[in-house]
Amino acid sequence: MQTVPATENVLSDVIDQRPMGRLQFELIGLCVILAAIDGFDTQVMGFLVGPMAESLGLPAASFGPVFASTLLGLMIGALSLAPLADRIGRKKVLLGCVATFSLFSLCTALSHNYEQLLLARFLTGLGLGGAVPNLIALVCEYTPRRHARSAVTLVFCGMPLGAMVAGLVAEQVLPALGWRAVFICGAVLPLIFADLLWRSLPESIEFLSRTAANREQVLRIVSRLMPNLKTLPDSLFNRPLANLPRISPRRLFEHGMWRRTLLLWLPYAMNLLILYSIMSWVPTVLSSARLPAHTGVEAIVLFSLGGVVGSLVQGRLMDVLGAHRVLIAQFLAYQLLVLLLVMLPLAATSFLTLLLLMGLLIQGAQAGLNALAAELYPQEIRSTGIGWALGIGRIGSILGPLLGGLMVGLGWQVQHVFMAALIPSLIALGALLAIHFSQRRDHASHPTPTY
């Protein structure tokens, strides 16, 4: 008979000391699917602006605030619902988020005026924002530390995968059934998946072990990791939460860290600005170009496919070459691709090829920035540093669609839009170079760094 040793970090020790098993692979698979549903709902409107504008009698440029409302809801959901999960459990919050963005995707399909559309997309974003942090937290909790980076990167691949599926669904459903049917698909898929989540998704064992009433449930979960397990120690339950000092965001600006904090926030915000302006507006901008009608949808599908590949290889590249080198090279390569796009004649084949490569670079870089944030901060403030970088970065994701809408309203051509996107990429590149040289100076002064 196996027993779990009564140590303070007993559950994480059990997970770290054993190989990946069926429980972890099932959990990661569920989270990839959920992230894909998230990506579908976040990006689907980018494919539908033209038909929606015509149906609702609105100018296409007025959809900038609609995109921004989704992303504002996403930011608020991430900040407010993640702490709630620590109190009532991650599984409950995740299921609530799935129900929320499913319901309000349906409300989007039923919207008949601008105000209804704004509200429906904001509330959809609220549910989407609460889902992602809990996905990552569950994956990190159940995955051995040595595999955590790969597992999280794999889950993040679900988001561009979902965006790609959104494009394929829009391409097939839109001509036959209209834009409302596409949103109905986005509402029905999560509801079908919710039943599988309820039956298969494990709750956080750290959350369950806070009370002895959950002993049998914890035993069932842990026994899937240790099949011969028969009992659990009493010391595992009724444990107080970790007695750690409350980390104030002010710590991110103390002891000279203000420079690296501000420099890190810049590439986060600028990269998301580029990413969401492309995802939101490229199909609409291309509709006015002399290209086949389906080119806009194909462009975002390929951009998302590039994101899947980029996210998968990013971690390995940074392990081999270093985070700074890879990220700096990615922004330089993106700028070269933009110059090529502007100089070459606008043809479908060349444009789609460049969008595929841009997706690989931009979305891969977004995954890489999370790893860079973890490297820049000491252990005791690392979570706070990453969380605030993600939160500030969301400002860029809100500004991107708004600025894209402004450019569409001014009648800009696709080349002009991408030339404008060089500005945030140059800002991000400058910040990354400053971080790189600052760290080199720190390493020269302190040969044994603490981060």
Automatic annotation (TrEMBL):
CC annotations in GO? plasma membrane
**The keyword Transmembrane helix appears for this protein:** yes
Which keywords, in A-to-Z order, does the entry hold? Membrane, Transmembrane, Transmembrane helix
Q: State the annotated membrane topology for this chain.
A: Multi-pass membrane protein
Under Gene Ontology molecular function, one entry of this record is: carboxylic acid transmembrane transporter activity
Q: Which Pfam families match?
A: MFS_1
Spans through the membrane: 27-49, 61-81, 93-112, 118-139, 151-170, 176-198, 262-282, 294-314, 326-348, 354-374, 386-410, 416-435
Cell compartments where the protein resides:
Membrane
Question: InterPro entries attached here?
Answer: MFS, MFS_dom, MFS_trans_sf, Sugar_transporter_CS
User: Do the record's keywords include Coiled coil?
Assistant: no
Q: Which residues form the Major facilitator superfamily (MFS) profile domain?
A: 27-442
The protein's name is: MFS transporter
Query: What species does this protein belong to?
Result: Pseudomonas gingeri
